[in-house]
Amino acid sequence: xxxxxxxxxxxxxxxxxxxxxxxxxxxxxxxxxxxxxxxxxxxxxxxxxxxxxxxxxxxxxxxxxxxxxxxxxxxxxxxxxxxxxxxxxxxxxxxxxxxxxxxxxxxxxxxxxxxxxxxxxxxxxxxxxxxxxxxxxxxxxxxxxxxxxxxxxxxxxxxxxxxxxxxxxxxxxxxxxxxxxxxxxxxxxxxxxxxxxxxxxxxxxxxxxxxxxxxxxxxxxxxxxxxxxxxxxxxxxxxxxxxxxxxxxxxx
Length: 252
Known about the structure:
Layout: E1 5-9, H1 19-30, E2 36-41, H2 46-55, E3 63-66, E4 71-74, H3 82-89, H4 94-100, E5 108-109, E6 120-123, H5 129-141, E7 146-151, E8 155-160, H6 165-175, E9 183-187, E10 201-204, H7 210-213, E11 220-222, H8 227-238
Helix pairs in contact: 1-8
């Protein structure tokens, strides 16, 4: 594994959820850290992610993608990557997005700490596809260019067009000049979906929600292990640590 790779991973339900599995992942990565750039991509705020890094065995990443792909910051120092944020600012109107969806009585606005400059977030249980189409239509009718991200049959995020975890992962791959086959992504829910649609090598953990378990294709590896063990299983698969043919590991 002499060529540098990029791992972009979700946290909650993916790397986080099993402390023993996380310790195994951290040990694996420590031996290969010089050849793996690490990015955490989460729906949470930057400071919340940093708290988890400090409180668990999560290895320190190079970059944190927070707010469902609306913030891209260096972990060391917390500085934003300005090209990313400047691009989002040109096409976003948070107040307009809120106003366009005000008449949807099945959307419950999340608390203020879950909102951000480039993200408007709601709770909405079991939204059917027709309702999501109506939400997208309302935003378009208001002249807004926005992405609708729905995950876990509960969390609805409205973000600028061109934002999202997948777009952020592509931005970082280009920034570091890494081809798609050197980018590995892992996740467990719908807000990770766009990372799997960019030609990267994907890892779906066993405890993933149905929207991710439905993925298939040559760039999707579905592990039979959960949480960080599933991520580690996928890394070993894609980086050919099993030899000529893929085989499953046996975790304790």
